[in-house]
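so my prof wants the structure for this chain in the tokens format not the other one, which i didnt know existed until like an hour ago. anyway here's the sequence
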Amino acid sequence: MKELDIHSVTVNKWKAASASKTKVEQRPNLLKQDFSTTGLNQKWTADMTCIQTKRNGWCYLSTIMDLHSRRIIGYSFSKKMATDLVLKTLESAVKN
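here's what i got, hopefully its the right format
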């Protein structure tokens, strides 16, 4: 490997984010596992996914899906997991 200047790809293990020191306010479960709809924009779901890239390390994809059409109606991609990422996703969904 040294003669051919070949290097192995090493992957760092994922580390969980440290717990926030601020208290999280409990919210009621409005859907209660009822995902049925009769029209567009009645119920949306959101998700954030961690994606490891070679160039930028861990990146984050935030999405919002309309439950009626099952289509992604808003998304945002960022190198940082921050409130701004979620707000951009919501703005994208509202515009669509």
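also thought this was worth mentioning. The longest strand covers residues 44-53.
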